[in-house]
């Protein structure tokens, strides 16, 4: 079955909002359980799975910046919040039998392993899910950029950005019912059209290293599994014009 897959190792980028409930903030155990089940379905195919998760459900640095907070301080707070999300998701995964490791770019030995590239790869080779927390460990870099960086470090075949819509649109589909869904974009198009696929640093990093980005709806039934076999799902961003 594994030989038939298009992607054998993926980096899944989740927004922190993926863990929030109807209220839009905090960590909802029911949401964590739902995501864990979807990841378990992917693991059943034999695919290696690494995850980078944001912190928008717990802390948005912009709020602090608007009140005069130091940018580096706000960013470090966000990094710590990603580790909280990583631990919540790890717990949900392990309760359904998926062996998981959390690695943090900021050392906190009591709760997570330090991020070591070769150790992360070894965990993946042993069939474990690896959740990579604390971004890059540096302020001024988003979790999008952290996801792009980690995807390349672990030799992922694709960076999958999970959203709550079916891919990348030319406008907000929740506001504009006539919004157009893009099936394919080049890196340059994604940057120039300012479509908010990911931040420009992350897209440029993927472009420089020819790492494809796939944007899809994690909550669409079987979308993630279908993507692994190369079925047309969501929006693919790569360097091939007219694909």
Sheet bearing the most strands, described?
9 strands, mixed
**Poorly predicted sequence stretches spanning 5 or more consecutive residues:** none
Q: Provide the spatial order of strands within the biggest beta sheet.
A: 4-3-5-2-1-6-10-11-9
Measured as a percent range, the helix fraction is: 25-40%
Number of helices: 8
CATH homologous superfamily designation: Acetylglutamate kinase-like
Envelope shape: globular
CATH topology descriptor: Carbamate kinase
Q: How big a fraction of the residues is strand?
A: 15-25%
Instruction: Give the tally of structural domains.
Output: 1
The H-and-E topology, N to C, reads as: EHEHHEEHEHEEEEHHEHE
Mean pLDDT: 93
| Rg, nearest Å | 17 Å
Structural class: alpha/beta
CATH architecture: 3-Layer(aba) Sandwich
Distance between the termini: 26 Å
CATH class: Alpha Beta
SSE blueprint:
Elements: E1 9-14, H1 29-43, E2 48-53, H2 61-66, H3 71-94, E3 100-104, E4 113-114, H4 117-125, E5 129-133, H5 143-153, E6 158-163, E7 168-169, E8 181-182, E9 184-186, H6 187-192, H7 200-208, E10 213-217, H8 223-228, E11 235-238
Parallel strand pairs: 1-2, 1-6, 2-5, 3-4, 3-5, 6-10, 9-11
Antiparallel strand pairs: 7-8, 10-11
Helix pairs in contact: 1-3, 5-7
List the defining traits of the structure above.
243 residues, alpha/beta, Carbamate kinase, 9-stranded mixed sheet, two-stranded antiparallel sheet, 11 strands, 35% helix, globular
Task: Characterise this structure.
The protein is an alpha/beta fold and 243 residues long. The mean pLDDT is 93. It has helices at 29-43, 61-66, 71-94, 117-125, 143-153, 187-192, 200-208, 223-228, and strands at 9-14, 48-53, 100-104, 113-114, 129-133, 158-163, 168-169, 181-182, 184-186, 213-217, 235-238. The chain has a single domain (2-238), classed as 3-Layer(aba) Sandwich (Carbamate kinase), CATH 3.40.1160.10. Helix 1 crosses helix 3 (71-94) and helix 5 runs parallel beside helix 7. It is 35% helix and 19% strand. Strand 1, helix 1 (29-43) and strand 2 (48-53) form a beta-alpha-beta unit.
């Amino acid at each position: 079955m594994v030989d038939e897959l298009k992607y054998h190792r993926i980096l899944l980028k989740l927004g922190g909002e993926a863990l929030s409930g109807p209220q839009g903030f905090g960590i909802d155990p029911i949401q964590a359980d739902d995501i864990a089940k979807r990841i378990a379905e992917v693991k059943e195919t034999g695919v290696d799975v690494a995850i980078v998760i944001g912190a928008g459900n717990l802390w948005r640095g912009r709020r602090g910046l608007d009140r005069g907070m130091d940018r580096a301080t706000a960013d470090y707070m966000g990094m710590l919040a990603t580790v909280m999300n990583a631990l919540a998701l790890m717990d949900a995964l392990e309760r359904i039998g998926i062996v998981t490791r959390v690695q943090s770019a900021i050392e906190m030995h009591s709760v997570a392993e330090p991020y070591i590239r070769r150790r992360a790869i070894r965990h993946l080779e042993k069939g474990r899910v690896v959740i990579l927390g604390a971004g890059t460990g540096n302020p001024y870099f988003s979790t999008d950029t952290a996801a792009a960086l980690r995807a390349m470090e672990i030799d992922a075949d694709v960076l999958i950005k999970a959203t709550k819509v079916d891919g990348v649109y030319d406008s907000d589909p929740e506001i504009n019912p006539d919004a157009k869904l893009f099936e394919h974009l080049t890196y340059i198009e994604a940057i120039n059209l300012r479509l908010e696929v990911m931040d420009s640093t992350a897209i440029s990093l993927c472009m420089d290293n020819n790492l494809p980005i796939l944007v899809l709806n994690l909550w669409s039934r079987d979308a993630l599994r279908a993507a692994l076999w190369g079925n047309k799902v969501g929006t693919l961003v790569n360097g091939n014009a007219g694909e």
